[in-house]
Amino acid sequence: MIASLKDLLVFEEGRELTPYKDELGIWTIGVGFNLEANVLPQNIAQSLVAMIPSDWRSRYDNLMMQSRGIPWPHNLTLIQDAGGSITDVQCDELYSDTLDGILEWLPGLVESYDSLNVVRQAAFVDMAWNLGENRFSEFGDFISLCNEAAETGNWDQAINDLMHTLVWQQFEDMHNERYHRIADMLTTGRWPEV
């Protein structure tokens, strides 16, 4: 049963300590962390660098000085060099860092975010987790309709708009009900029963 945001995201994304290619062929780890699109945060990168032979560390130290962590494809190489996986603690840190990052920008895009109940907020976080900031921000009409729905309580237009997006169709084509669950959560304000 899903009763929290973390339950929802682990259900949708899985929780993998070893890098894998997702259904779109994207290198991923943890709770759906896209290694190709995101920098591996510095705190996790530092703990992985500490696990590799000292003569290999300088190249990663140099990369960390250039950015806030380790970018693609070096992040995958670092994980492989450090034994091929991350720990449960590192996975939890990666989840928290990713969530904190989303919560920095999401309320600025969805004006009604703070007025929504926790389930509707979770639906937006789930979408943001899946799409990332750039792709999520392309959903301007949907976001506007959701802001209206937050005031009126009528989510039909917003859901109809979502149903006519490419991402909805992509998930339909993969026989994945994720966006149906997001739509239900927005409409009902209740956790999905899965």
Summarize the structure.
The chain has helices at residues 5-13, 42-49, 57-66, 74-81, 88-109, 118-137, 140-152, 156-163, 166-173, 178-188; strands at 16-21, 27-30, 33-34, 40-41, 69-70. 60% of the residues lie in helices and 8% in strands.
User: How many beta-strand elements?
Assistant: 5
Shape: elongated
Order of helices and strands: HEEEEHHEHHHHHHH
Task: Please indicate the percent range of residues in DSSP E strands (runs of 2 or more).
Answer: 5-15%
**Radius of gyration over alpha carbons?**
18 Å
How many separate helices?
Answer: 10
Structure write-up:
The chain is mostly helical and 194 residues long. 60% of the residues lie in helices and 8% in strands. It has ten helices and five strands. Strands 1-2-3 form a three-stranded antiparallel sheet. It starts with a helix and ends in a 6-residue tail after the last helix.
SSE inventory with pairings:
Layout: H1 5-13, E1 16-21, E2 27-30, E3 33-34, E4 40-41, H2 42-49, H3 57-66, E5 69-70, H4 74-81, H5 88-109, H6 118-137, H7 140-152, H8 156-163, H9 166-173, H10 178-188
Antiparallel strand pairs: 1-2, 2-3, 4-5
Helix pairs in contact: 1-6, 2-3, 5-6, 6-10, 7-8, 8-10
Give short descriptive properties of this protein.
two-stranded antiparallel ribbon, 5 strands, three-stranded antiparallel sheet, 194 residues, elongated, mainly alpha
